[in-house]
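Predict the 3D structure for this chain.
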Amino acid sequence: MDRAAYAVFAKLEPSHFWFRSRRSIFFDLLDRALGKTEARPAGAAPRAVLEIGCGAGGMLGPLQRYGRVSGIDIDHEYVAYCKERGFADVACGSGYELPFHDGAFDLVCLFDTLEHIPDDEQALREVRRVLRPGGSVFVSVPAYQWLWSQNDRTAHHCRRYTRTRLLRLLQRAGFGPRKVSYFNTLLLPLIVPAVLWQKLMDRLGRLPPNYNNMSVPLPRFLNWLFTTLMSSERYLLRWLSLPFGHSVLALAERQPER
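Done. Predicted structure below.
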């Protein structure tokens, strides 16, 4: 990801509707699937949790509700920033060669990380290696290749996904999906024309080179409204899988060797 985008993302993580809503949706699903650490039986060892592509550390704190959290990121500056924020167990490394023993973790999360990795299947096989039998992986990715835009280039994405593509990828890598769904569905009617406009401006050469959606100031009321709409999808996802959306999420379990 470009350095300018790093700075913008780190600044907006606490307040921007996209980050806030993702946290609401993801942790509602994980809470129901796993339960918080304090709800575990007395004497049970805390879960070992890993976030791959932890970035500025915005998810490391919330993940602590599930157990002992480690992070890894390929960017040295982000790792240093996480340590400054008090997250000591963060390392610099590649998703292809995770510096952990086999079966070291109960939960591995890749929050909008997999799309940055050229060989996504190899990365997921490495995730499977460091998960204990029956351990869980949580993945979120951007949806629809036809929505590819300047944002994806700025973020150094390799691809976007469909639900079917992510489902088949997880199965090939040795996971049994528990939940695979689109999300950010309610705002998609607003997102599509905005992306198409951006693509047109880019083709006409009128888009700044480092432009991304996060660089556009958002009035406080709209930020509140978009947060309310997007985060409300967590209630729908408790009962069904959404048929379309701007992103895809998946929760899957490590399957036994065949």
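The chain has a mean pLDDT of 90.
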